[in-house]
Amino acid sequence: MTMVKEKELAYSVERIAYRKNSLLLSAIRYSLNAISYSLVFSILFFTSTCFAKDINFEATVDRDKVGLGQSLQINHTFNGTQNMPALELPAIEGFQARYLGPSTRMSIINGRIESSITHIYTLLPIKVGIFKIGPFKFEHNGDTYNSNSISVEVIETAEQSENQPSQEAQPEVKDLNERIFLTMQVKKNKVYLNEVTPVTIKLFVNKLGVRDIQYPQFSHDGLSVGAFEQPKQYQEIVNGISYDVIEFDTRIFGLRQGELRLGEANLQCNLIVKKQIRRQVPSFFDNFFDSDVFDNFLGGYQTYPLNLKSTDIPITILPLPEENKPEGFSGAVGLFDFEAAVTPLEVKVGDPITLKATVRGQGNFNTVTLPVITSGNDFKVYEAQVKQEKTALADGNQTTARWPTAKAFEQVLIPLNAAIKEIPAINFNFFNTQTGKYETITSGAFPIRIVKSEKEEELKIIESKQPVNASFQANGQWLGFHQPKPKEDKLGRDIIYIKDAPGQLRKKGEYLYKNKLFIFFQIIPLLLYLLIAVFQARNRRIKTDIKYARQLLAPKKARSGIRQAKNYLDKGNIQEFYDVLFKTLQEYLGDKFHLPSKGITISVIDEHLRNKNVPEEILISLRDIFRDCDMVRYAASQLREENTRNSLRKIEEIIDYLQRHKV
Known about the structure:
With 663 residues, this protein is α+β, with helices and mostly antiparallel strands. Helices cover 29% and strands 33% of the residues. α6 (516-544) packs across α7 and α10 packs antiparallel against α11.
């Protein structure tokens, strides 16, 4: 009995010890789990903190040697962050710069997260030499970042073609501004008021590819400028260098006297530059085929916009002299010839006579008008019809070659009496810019014969049907009025028979166009036409205006994406929910601001919305959504349902704000 009790006691002690050990193991297990979670949280926290502070700024180029007429790419890379805006490049000696866009990268290697953003620029060399680019200094949110410097050599790559005949060696061109430039010239720097002078603008290009050339523009305060003629193309040698030239010709004249300036000419074009595309690891095809063929086929060239400018030109506008100014001078300035003719020479009173006059010459035809005919009240004069045309190529005679422009007038005159014997002489006055004097050309007088009309209208007096007569005595005493006895009408002549069946009667003054219902039905086709026109114009704009189409369809696509995200959320698919949410936000922001959707990052949006008065809470919501979408790729388990609901609510608020406000 004692042995049994001892065994039971020992068994109880063992059970108690086993329970204690189990409780201890459970406590240790829970403690290890808590420690592991704490370590993971600490690693994530300190890693993000290090990313926020340890940012490396690096500048690189795709090649360190480039030729004139080519371009190179410079990259500004910020390692350790993806929320860094683009640096506005300072002036770089020997280069022109243009920003292309950002590129982001994120990777996880052995549990370590690495992220970066690269801002890409294109540099176009403008002269030969060795240049030092950088170092660049960038300040953002109170921190200063410094990059390294880069050395780039620009060489002269233009060589004489083997197919061209041998010529004397041309001077070496070491500056892009000597390869392509713009000039502007005027024939005369001192002109009279309203005197026309030619303006010539030339684009010089030496061994470069240029396309999308626009017509030049220039300021011309106080001057009137005509339309450009058809551009001319030819070759010209300047300082021993052969250039392809495109010439733009127009004409100007002064509107007011004084010292004026013809502003610098601006011309927009695209320069075709060659970019070097090389695969880092040579393949079998590089040995079997020439890799340059594939490089050129796969986009070996790109366009670079250029804005070329010329120098401005001073112009003096002289006033027309008041001395010896003829009466009737209307402002014609230049060198002119004038002639006039009248047909027919024999007409009846009231029949038309046609006066045809032509002014030919070189000058400002805007101020050339038909001289006024001083005929008194003998003629009724109608307004003249005017026609202006070029005559230099009309025929090959010397007259039209001397007078390249003509302005023809045709005027109708109506003679009012038969006593007219001639149409007075017509004097055309103009100021000769070559002699600096006024000149007058007279045409006429024109003898004509006016014949009286065979049938003349007689004056007819129409008496009243019942005249009233007044009577007086011989001494002038008033007797009063008396009414003559009316004539008797013969019966039967004015009899009208009464209709026994009047037919359908209609209210007097009732017309269909006064019916309101009829007017309403007439408006319906007009409304339908306007509706169809608006609909077609909208469809046409959607097809032709890509920016308008993207902005119009952006909210519809966003609503569809939000509905799809809600379906994934209801099913508990967090990964798919954030993928759709991120894609919806990218596509909406890209369509809304007409940006590439795949390149949308928080840094791009921050830079775009920086100066658009967007509330800070909207920007914070955008940053939170981008952060949550990035986090779900690496730690989806850390996000709770509350986070997903908040993300959905925030994207709806962002889209609603951007749609209601013009941003």
